[in-house]
């Protein structure tokens, strides 16, 4: 039977943040969006540790803060309050170039909409983040081909995204996320634009990557896919209401 913790009743759980196996540590993270007339509290006092090698899903109803939390984890947005450390480094107050450098080296993104560039080949799409990193051409080639082989798309390296099915495009997006050997993969509704067959195939791929040592944090509204993870975090109104380990 699965174990359950109600995190908001245990704010001191974050004491594990200094552990050598803790990859991500959030302490009392909040996010407030302000307009002229409205103040929206998207996240309220999030305490969370993610450890190296974990497969975590973030679930909850629409508007509960899932995507906001993933954007903060991915250094695409900054918290309004609290602290966030990645591999022991406090990242909330870093400069934009410093955040971009860490994001490029430590975080791999898998988006619902694939976000492939249409006039670049599969190889070039996967290669692009490595080019921004300043990696040499020969080394880039090795990293790209290794990533494409891991997702079963090595034979499509010279094709354009328009020549691929949706499922194949998402596999290329996974390869792009993997190519730089990041510390964590962040997946935002990775099956959202796929039919059930291709969605199941992508989830099977993520499970295989996790078995091979990848650390994964995935946002999903699909309870079937959330159950693929070792651990499911449920959000409601911007708060963690449950942190459940798989049976």
- Tertiary shape: globular
Mean pLDDT: 89
Stretches where pLDDT falls below 50 for ≥5 residues? 1-18
The level of helicity is 25-40%
Description:
It is a single chain. The chain is an alpha/beta fold and 247 residues long. 32% of the residues lie in helices and 27% in strands. It has 7 helices and 11 strands. The strands form 2 sheets. The chain has a 7-stranded mixed beta sheet, with helices on both faces. A 4-stranded antiparallel beta sheet has the order 3-2-5-6, covered by helices on one side. Strand 8, helix 6 (196-211) and strand 9 form a beta-alpha-beta unit. Helix 3 runs parallel beside helix 5, helix 4 crosses helix 5 and helix 5 (166-179) packs parallel to helix 6. It is globular, with a radius of gyration of 18 Å.
Task: List the keywords.
247 residues; alpha/beta; 11 strands; globular
Brief overview, please?
With 247 residues, the chain is of the alpha/beta class. The chain is 32% helix and 27% strand.
